[in-house]
Write a structure and sequence with these properties.
Helices cover 46% and strands 13% of the residues. With 392 residues, it is an alpha/beta fold.
């Protein structure tokens, strides 16, 4: 009598001994029609072996079948087949149907740690439209010169929002609750670096509500720097006296050096043209006081792409021009003159030892095959969230 939850599997080793071969010939008579001694088997003997083997495999399959029945098992197999068929359709290196990829991708596009998902998901057709429009506009921006980009950035983003009215950035902006959640989440990153009466420079502040919250939290002066004023009229009217918005061309910022105790940007670096990344860090480095911190968050490459590119492929073709790893960022910050990098995980600063530990975990994760690496990174490395210090 087998034990509860077990089959006769415990007896399997004895089935392949000499005594067992007589009753289960398919275990030793091979597909080439020969027995253990290499002599040809008769046709009837081969048929008996095939039938026995088929019966044995059916028994194994029945034993492996879940207790909830063959119909559920059949549906499970059908779903698996659908995944395999979707492998080539999506262009991904993991077997998911295009509907699954689209759903997961738009959930990620519409959901960050500080945003709740939209109540009405977009259809696959709308996602495809968004993808094609952004891919077209991003290609124009990639091919642009430095002289063209200050005007082209504004023009192309405006065109994107006009042609894709259900873009997540537009739908999120309409919700005051989601905006407040975003501000609260970003304040968790910024607050540990705020000094009472200190100066904060926020890069690409958007609606500037984080800057307003920083003023309320005790900052003496908050300067937002952006290529345009994106505030609603209501937001402009309630701007604190300590807040100032400076509009510039993205390259030449008319502010004196060493004025900021802390600089901040959120989901900004990935939108920079590759040729503009170093100039950006040079500007921030110049604005910071000795010992000042640049706190920023940008998507992690291992769990990306994090823009619309992810719905139909694995390469960045949208307005995310570059996504980073902690290791990438550590090396880049040293080249730009920053002395210290601290990782921020769960809203908490990591010291030197913990930052080194995360760098090690990341480097080991990078050795894994891409599908497994992405699955692990989706839990451990959604973003590169760090604080970089200017030398004293």
């Amino acid at each position: 009598m087998p034990k509860h939850g077990r089959s006769d599997a415990e007896d399997t080793p004895s089935e392949v001994d000499e005594a067992g071969r007589a009753s289960k010939p398919w275990l030793h008579e091979l597909g080439d029609g020969r027995d253990d001694d290499g002599d040809p088997c008769s046709a009837s003997r081969q048929d008996e072996a095939k039938q026995g083997k088929q019966g044995h495999m059916q028994a194994v399959q029945q034993f492996a079948m879940p207790a909830y029945g063959p119909r559920v098992w059949q549906r499970h197999e059908e779903r698996g087949q659908k995944k395999r068929e979707g492998y080539q359709e999506t262009g991904h290196d993991f077997p998911e149907s295009i509907e699954q990829v689209a759903w997961k991708s738009q959930q990620r596009l519409l959901t960050t740690p500080f945003h709740s998902p939209m109540s009405q998901p977009r259809s696959l057709e709308r996602l495809r439209h968004h993808y094609e429009v952004e891919k077209e506009l991003a290609a124009r921006l990639r091919a642009s010169t430095r002289e063209e980009r200050p005007v082209l950035f504004q023009k192309l983003y405006q065109e994107l929002f006009e042609r894709v009215p259900d873009h997540p950035r537009l739908t999120r902006r309409e919700s005051s609750q989601e905006s407040q959640m975003k501000v609260e989440g970003q304040m968790r990153l910024l607050r540990p670096f705020l000094k009472p009466g200190g100066t904060v420079v926020e890069v690409a502040p958007g609606d500037c509500r984080l800057g307003y919250a920083a003023c309320a939290a005790g900052a003496g002066r908050v300067i937002g720097v952006d290529i345009s004023d994106q505030r609603l009229e209501a937001d402009k009217a309630r701007a604190p006296s300590a807040f100032e918005l400076v509009v510039y061309d993205g390259y030449h910022l008319d502010l004196p050096p060493a004025i900021a105790d802390v600089a901040f940007s959120y989901q900004f670096l990935e939108h920079l043209h590759p040729d503009d990344v170093r100039p950006h860090f040079d500007i921030v480095h110049r604005l910071l006081k000795p010992g000042g911190w640049y706190v920023f968050d940008t998507p992690h490459r291992f769990s990306g792409p994090h823009d619309i590119s992810v719905v139909f492929g694995s390469e960045l073709v949208g307005f995310h021009f570059q996504e980073w790893t902690l290791g990438d960022m550590s090396r880049h910050l040293k080249q730009c003159g920053f002395s210290t990098m601290q990782a921020i995980k769960g809203g908490r600063r990591c010291g030197t030892v913990m930052t080194a530990a995360w760098l090690l975990v990341e480097s080991l994760t990078g050795l894994l095959p891409r599908p497994l690496r992405k699955r692990i990174a989706s839990r451990l490395f959604q973003s590169v969230t760090v604080a970089a210090q200017k030398p004293l």
